[in-house]
Amino acid sequence: MTAVPPILSVRDLTVEFRTRRGIVHALEGVRLDVRRHQMVGVVGESGSGKSVTAFAIMRLLDRAARVRSGSILFEGLDLLQANAAELDTVRGRDLSIVFQNPRTALNPIRPVGTQIADVIGRHQPAPSSGIAMALVCRPRLLIADEPTTGLDVTTQAAVMDLIREAVDAGQTSAILITHDLALASEYCDHIVVMHAGHVVESAPSATLFAAPRHPYTAKLLRSIPSAAPTIDALQPIPGSLPDLRRGDLPPCRFSARCDRYAAVCDAPPLRASRLDADHDVACRIPL
Fold first, then answer.
1. Distance between CA atoms of residues 127 and 232, nearest Å
2. Residue 3 in domain
């Protein structure tokens, strides 16, 4: 029996930004799949490339960005090769994003309802009296970039429950971009861990939280209060992300922070290996 292809398949995505201070190698060889009716969590420290990945999927990268290689297939359509008309059809109707700071996505001098009606009317013409019914329609893939930032615990749970219910009902698939691993473990089916523009580990949530195989993932889990049995067990990740403007970035961008580092880690290229069913890790000396 032929496996059903994922609704979204990102392959070998490499993105750089030209700045006055040099070229920023923001993403390198990113691979990511989202299956139908699945919520995938993309986690990692600030600056790991989570939001850049989301913006690349939506084709919303700014002019300084350059996609050097890769493909982004959404239901068979390569979004990187799609023309303006194709993108206009897909975005909003089938593929939507909740921005990290939603306040910047709205015009402060126009009623919110009018702005929502504008979007719906563009993709699904309807009279103003039918707006409430039209809102019931959901995109086939929702990207939520830190959707709970600044919310109290009760509202945060309500927002995440709403997204999860839509996924469970078969109405949508979702990508949750977050630095909150506890949130990801509670709501996501699959976790993708990013560090300095690389995907370092990808696994089902239960597998990853029970037995992380990449040293960075393990340290990330030990750095959050909800995953540590005691306060004394908390361990900060040493060092910081490498300067992504460097022209001599090592194959493993975590090597300078890793206590398992060995000479073999410097041998290019570094590619993800399949450890188990649906569990990939980009490490030459996995745990």
1. 59
2. no
111 vs 32: CA distance, rounded Å = 37
Can you give the residue range of the structural domain that contains 141?
8-281
**Among residues 58, 62, 64, 139, which one has the least CA distance to residue 99?**
58
From the centroid of its chain, how far is CA 184? 11
Asked, for residue 226, whether it belongs to a domain, the answer is yes
187-235 pLDDT, tens digit per residue, is: 999 999 999 999 999 999 999 999 999 999 999 998 877 666 677 778 8
Backbone angles phi, psi at 102, to 5 degrees: -65, -20
Number of domains forming the structure of the chain: 1
- Which of 47, 58, 144, 137 minimizes the C-alpha distance to 101? 144
Give the rounded distance of the alpha carbon of 17 from its chain centre.
Answer: 19
Q: How far apart are the C-alpha atoms of 254 and 261, rounded to whole Å?
A: 9
Interval 101-154: pLDDT, tens:
656 666 777 776 776 667 666 656 554 447 333 334 578 999 999 988 888 889
Query: Is 287 within the bounds of a domain?
Result: no
| pTM (2 d.p.) | 0.89
Q: Where residue 44 sits, what CATH number does that domain have?
A: 3.40.50.300
In order of 258, 263, 277, the CA distances from 273 in angstroms are 19, 19, 11
Location of structure tokens 């292809």: 5
Q: Cβ distance 197 to 243 under 8 Å?
A: no
CA distance 196 to 44: 9
Sorted by sequence, the CB contacts under 8 Å of residue 197 that are 6+ apart come out as 25, 26, 27, 28, 30, 48, 49, 52, 244, 253
Lookup: tokens for 6: 């994922």
